[in-house]
Amino acid sequence: MGGDCIDLNTLTDTFYIYPQCSHFSVTKIALATEEIYKLWRAGSINAVPSPQSV
Can you tell me whether residue 44 is helix, strand or coil? Predict the structure, then answer.
């Protein structure tokens, strides 16, 4: 396998996703993930568990 890859991680598992379409942007997903994380750390969103409850 080759090309772009996205990895999704939990505390116990890792999943690798290999997009099949040509219009898929791994870079856009990576940048969006970083922005969501920044918002979460700033307390602007609570879509995922807080570090204290993990």
Answer: coil
11-to-2, 14, 20, 22, 54 alpha-carbon distances in Å: 26, 8, 27, 31, 10
Question: Tens digits of per-residue pLDDT, 10-53?
Answer: 889 999 988 888 888 888 988 998 998 899 889 888 765 656 65
N residues, the chain: 54
Report the amino acid identity of residue 25. S
What lies within 8 Å, CB to CB, of 47 at 6+ separation is: 36, 40
The band of 2, judged by pLDDT with boundaries at 50, 70 and 90, is low
Contacts 24+ apart (CB under 8 A), 32-36: none
